[in-house]
Amino acid sequence: MSTSTWLTTEQKAHYGRFLRQFRRNQKAVIGLGIVVSLFVIAIVTYFAPEIVPYDPSATDVPNREAAPSLQHPMGTDDLGRDVFSRVVLGTQISLYVGFVSISAAMIMGTTIGVVAGYYQGLIDESLMRLMDAMMSFPPILLALTIVAVMEPSLNNVIIALAFVYTPFIARVARSAALSVRNESYIEAAVARGESDTYIIFREVLPNCVGPLLVQGSINIAFTMLLEASLSFLGLGVQPPRPSWGLMINSGWAYMGDAPWIVLFPAAAIATAVIGFNLLGDGLRDVLDPKGEIIE
Amino acid sequence: MSRATTSTPTEASTEPLLSVESLRTQFRTEDGIVTATNDVSFSLDHGEVMGIVGESGAGKSVTAKSIMRLIRYPGEIAGGSVVFDGEDLLSYSEAEMRSIRGNRITLIPQDPMTSLNPVLTVGQQITETIELHQDVDHEEAREIAIEAMREVEIPAPETRIDEYPHEFSGGMRQRILIAIGLACEPDLIIADEPTTALDVTTQAKILELLNDLREEHGVSILMITHNLGVVAQTCDRVGVMYAGNLVETGTVSSIFKQPRHPYTRALIDAIPTVDGERGRDRLYALAGSMPDLKALPDGCNFADRCPHAIDACRRGEDPSLESVAGAPADTEAACIRADELDLTEPETSEGDRRQDKAISAEPLLAVDGLKKHFPSGDGLLGNLSLTRADGGGLSLERRYVKAVDGVSFTINRGETVGLVGESGCGKSTVARTVLQLLEPTDGEVYFDGQPLGELGSTALRSLRREMQIIFQDPKSSLNPRKTVGQLIGRGMEKHDIATGDEKRERIEELLERVGLQKSDIDKYPHQFSGGQQQRIAIANALAVEPELIVCDEPVSALDVSVQAQILNLLDDIQAEYGLSYLFISHNISVVQHICDRVAVMYLGKIAETGTVEQVFAPPYHPYTESLLSAVPHADPTRQPDRILLEGTVPSPLDPPSGCPFHTRCPKKIGDVCETDVPLPAPIGGDERHQIACHLSEAEMSTPLYDEPAAEPEP
After folding, report:
1. CB B157 within 8 A of CB B122
2. Is B114 in CB contact (< 8 Å) with chain A?
3. Distance from CA of A17 to the nearest CA of B (A)
């Protein structure tokens, strides 16, 4: 593997290779397709909410629990609101909650994990045992407790989710940092007289990005599920905002008569979860850290 | 001794045992088809030992795997034939192949540490093979397994058969792998770098064992190796591979005496010799590296690096193996000029003698009584253990691995000091402790007169500029996420040497100085070969203009021709930049080539120290003597008078009392070795040459030619 002469700009080749492998990976492509569509829906409906056929909060009691029809492609709920409009608008909330909480969890988890993995010893033990303690609670229980203590609201849900998923990210970051730490270039950086902060954030962290990206995109799916669960239990997003979990919550009593009230939001959750999972899986295949570094 | 007796096959047969014809193996990759072996043809007689040598990527292992049909997707055998004992293996079904593998053809893998399953006893792993291929019941299989273990000289096989792999040392595990290979009495053993992962003294024993086995069983061996010394010591015939093709085949003696292909000549010349006049000369180094197997050049694959290439070499097809006029009948070379070239004499390169160095008498680095003990076990209470005192009472004791136990030496300005020893002797720990990457347990390191242990962390950080390190594995020593420019530039920024355009200019200068292109500055490390990566690492070390560079096995991971390039480079920049080196290596010939003074380490202590001439000539410390004798020489005419050390290196957790070497010493004189720690004493009144041994100078000067002894393990 000598220097290839057909390269014009090195970075182009670097990312070109990544893109080609990504395109060849069906899982990644399907996952990315779903995720991008969800984003498009969320962004479009955010700037142009009138694009959906009905006002999501407008009740139409005479026409409640109407089966799916041309007028209401997903039927109407117990108050006569259009399920389709509400599902479409629910995308915004799900993605918002998922992304903001995972970003926060990534920042906290990565810092904790990389610091633990770099220093090892006592710092590692105390940080990771704390993470283990947090992980030993079922995620839903921990999130419920946090939200219940604060008070149910969208932002508190996000804070709770960020806390719940921090240990998961921290674990991955730590194991990645542990293996990077043993590379000679870390020792070389110490020998060069670099500070610990520089080594952790400039030498170790960039080499942990692959697994973290994978973990993040898979965990986004979980946070979206957990948000739905919290909303379902009435501790998440407050009505009348259209959240998928909340819609299932308010619809499940009518499952026998009007299954579509539950079915379509549930399908939306499933699609989003599958999309992010596929993307994460595909990324893992493509980003195999060894495969990327060794040509 | 085995060489002379077995060069005639034990079984008279006209058919060769193995005959490979035009073997072509390809791998489909994203960037195109890689032809790993292209038109490889050779044959192997009954009872013959043939070596396949070449640098990494030459296709040696792929040839071996193709013979056993172990090539997996995306690779495939695209053409040719492999005739084994009259049958074409390539036409066999997978089921038929399985009855051949492990039974009639066996493979001895490279790494004994990972090739045994850790959860099965060695007995289970040997009998597994036997029961699979032979019609015997469990008891009989066990008998055969014990017999095989006895055959490979494992002491007390009846009891050791029920032990797990981790209870054996590296050399012993390699013996077990050989026992597995032997258990079914195969016709052919393919040994894929069987000694590469082993220390030199262990390697000597394994090679001795293979020689004995082939003598007793008449088994044929195909020895894949990159080490010409191993070939010279064990093989009858040799095939030299380059870029997927055999470029020369012939008997060992004729190839070493008069190579017919320029590449063979270059391989032989690139090895630093342990003794001999040209030991200290510049090494002859081939420029460049092996061509990309995806895009081989027109004509001879070697033409671009060949000192004898003419225009005709760069046209047409790669030349095929042909017999050479005036050479022994079975010598063949793939070179269009083979008939006219006389390659008897070593190639010489310009600037033949090494540059004279200015070594001052003033010490740059002084290491005084350095100790580094690691707590054994992990966790807060991990290194505590219960011990019974002499009186019988139980007491708690902290246990330490004494990796470095009282080491003192100095490095003068402009000097190269070598630290040599087998793995686990503490060489690398010394390097890291000297650089204060590890905190010494005791002792002090003085750099330019300043005690490093007393410096504050800020002062130490700025002093780090003066001391750099080059690591063994260049791939691991360069951050894969940074471009070459970022890597090298960082040190300059850090220590305020240069910024902006000046920095870039300097980096480009450095890159050219170490033999790379200016334009390489924006590339990533993975775009370079191992040798080029090591050049980047050297440029990186030079960037901060240090006074001392610690080289931790800088050429061990490199091919022999690249090794020669790097050694020459280190040599050149030393004079130019006025550098001092602490050069750590297990390779004695490399140390002898590059160093001015040497310290031989054993079990955390220095056994012998002195100038290169003093250490590698009598009187020796017995350990130095056995190390020197264990190096396989690239000279088949040399009598193998190796000293085979008994047993293995004792654990540094529990080092022997008295002289650390007494458990294995072939010259042990008695109780004094077990009770008294020998102190380094000057030899012949010369303070520079010190040996830590109880023997008298006369005794240390007497050579010892030991019989190949069985090795009782402690």
Report:
1. no
2. no
3. 9
Q: Is residue A18 part of a domain?
A: no
**Cβ <8 Å between B292 and A188:** no
Query: How far is the alpha carbon of A288 from chain B, nearest alpha carbon, in Å?
Result: 14
Which ranges constitute the DSSP H helices of B183-278?
Answer: 200-217, 228-234, 252-257, 262-269
- Output the CA torsion B506→B508→B512→B518 (10° steps): -170
Contact flag A193-B460 (C-beta cutoff 8 Å):
yes
pTM, whole model, 2 decimals?
Answer: 0.80
> What is the spatial distance between Cα B234 and Cα B248, in angstroms, rounded to a whole number?
18
Q: What's the token pair of residue B164?
A: 């797990």
Q: What angle do CA B251, B255, B261 make, to 5 degrees?
A: 125
CA pair distance B301, B526, nearest whole angstrom = 24
Q: Averaged over B44-51, what is the pLDDT?
A: 90
Say if residues B525 and B446 touch (Cβ distance below 8 Å): no
What is the per-residue pLDDT across A9-48, written as a single tens digit (0 to 9) for each?
555 666 777 788 778 888 888 989 998 999 998 888 888 8
Strand partners, B249: B239, B332
User: Which residues, other chains included, contact B608 with Cβ-Cβ below 8 Å and sequence gap of 6+?
Assistant: B599, B600, B615, B620, B621, B623, B624, B690, B691, B692
Total structural domains within chain A:
1
Beta bridge partners of B384: B398
Is A176 part of a structural domain of the chain?
Answer: yes
| Degrees, nearest 5: CA angle A94-A98-A101 | 135
- Domain housing A209: 90-293
Query: How far is it, in rounded angstroms, from Cα B632 to Cα B588?
Result: 11
**Selection from B190, B158, B166 nearest residue B65 by Cα:** B190
Average pLDDT over residues A178-182: 89
Other CB atoms closer than 10 Å to residue A93's CB: what's the count? 24
Interface pTM, i.e. ipTM: 0.76
Cα gap B63→B70, rounded to integer Å: 10
pLDDT of the residue at A2: 39
State the Rg of chain B over Cα: 27
Give the domain ranges of chain B: 363-598, 617-701
Chain B residues whose CB is inside 8 A of the A286 CB are: none
Architecture of domain B363-598: 3-Layer(aba) Sandwich (3.40)
The pLDDT, as a whole number, for residue B1 is 39
Cis peptide bond prior to B619, omega within 30° of 0: yes
Residues 564-593 of B with CB under 8 A from A: none
**Nearest C-alpha neighbor of B470 from the set B380, B544, B376:** B544
Instruction: Say if B490 is an interface residue toward chain A (CB within 8 Å).
Output: yes
The 3-state DSSP class for residue B697 equals helix
* Cα gap B649→B414, rounded to integer Å: 34
Q: How many CB atoms lie within 10 A of CB A11?
A: 12
CATH of the domain at A220: 1.10.3720.10
Please report the DSSP string for A33-92 in residue order. HHHHHHHHHHHHHHH-GGGSSS-TT---GGGTTPPP-SSSTT-B-TT--BHHHHHHHHHH
Backbone angle region of B316, left / alpha / beta, with phi > 0 → left and psi within -120 to 50 → alpha: left
Q: Is residue A201 part of a domain?
A: yes
pLDDT in tens, B263-297: 888 888 888 765 544 446 677 777 777 787 777 88
| A190 contacts on B by Cβ (under 8 Å) | 437
Omega within 30 of 0 (cis) for the link into B74: yes
Query: In A, what residues contact B, Cβ < 8 A?
Result: 1-4, 7, 10, 14, 17, 20-21, 183-185, 187-188, 190-195, 203, 206-207, 293-295
Query: pLDDT for B217-240, tens place per residue?
Result: 889 999 998 888 888 888 999 999
Please report the pLDDT score of residue A292 as a whole number. 40
